[in-house]
Amino acid sequence: MEKTSAPADHRAIIVSVDLITFNKKYSENFNSDEFIDLAKSAGLQVEDHILSNQSFVSASHFLTKGKVEELRILSSEKDIKLVVLDCELSPSQERNLEKLLCARVLDRTGLILDIFAARAHSDIGKLQVELAQLSFLSTRLVRGWSHLERQKGGIGLRGPGETQLETDRRLIGNRIKQLKKRLDKQHNQKNLNRYSRKKGNNKLVALVGYTNAGKTSLFNRLTKGGLEAEDKLFATLDTTTRRANFKFKALDTVLFSDTVGFISNLPTKLIESFKATLDDLASADLLIHVIDAADPDKDYKIEQVNLILEDLGVSEVPQIRALNKIDLLQGTQIMPANNQYPETKISSETKEGLDELKIIISESLFGDLLTGWINFSPMQANIRSKLFDTGCILEEKIDSSGQNLSLVEITQTMLKKFENIESFKELKPSPH
Fold this sequence. Notes:
elongated; GTPase_HflX_N; 6-stranded mixed sheet; 4 domains; Rossmann fold; single chain; 4-stranded parallel sheet
């Protein structure tokens, strides 16, 4: 069966680089399939896949001479105009490879930026992607003007190539300054929103995890957010916040935030550019680390997520680990165990374990739910009214002595407001 024809600039050769000596830890968890999935997420048609096992990095081309020659022959035979490498190339290495291969060369950072540009929908997301792209492009301008005359030296001998490069650098520099100013304004607005949320006693729970772990699917289950969830890398880019959809009305003040997925070797430039979005993690009261429990490389991906959280300075935020996709697990597979954080098994597809997860979330944010029958005196009518408004009163009845009793379910956090009321001291932990 013949492959469906694709545009010339979408046909690509993928090169996975395994630096077995430079990074032994990375080599042990090396997974070239992930990079192929990343390329397909960008809309590329993978014509061939080359694996380069090398113990050193060439200063001029990154790849070894033999691998570059193999790549040149292959790209020439198949008429490939795009080569994508799973590494971070310097501008000079990128230019040298393009000159030898007579094809456009893209590294890991460039590929991820291309995916982000296609997936950004909000204003702040588009600003952040453009900032990251311009910062990446600013060191690669010389490639676009290599056909023009360069500076010869001396007064009056400045060539058009040098003039154009200086103009472009100045224009890009000005645009970067404008983007940073606009992002600062967006950042200040977000800070005001966070202040209002804190003032309203709302709690923020942020979903984090490796890309394609099922964060968006879980987000939809917890909030009825209605976001599009797809089985591909970086399906979600823009941060979205929605109110919780809990059966406990007392927990209506919980907000959930769906964040961009992480990936191994996430370029530092992207982390810096996306800090305005990822600041939601720093202001979160609780993180839910969503893990694909059916993934054989889950332990390595957990480690990568923790490293990024540490880079962002949010590793101290309380965390819950949600082992997702347990409906895909076989009986022989072993679930990861961790004593540092509360851990629960769930399936956002079948809803298995979601009630237990909600209980763990509520206990982490507010402490145990307490319940019991209370007789409110006429002097406590205002308290009874507030509890009705928050949904803490589940039922009312009149007992045999004619007293009006109310069944109260309340969090320990809310209970502190009424700790001086004697009847509230009789409440007991809710059986859920």
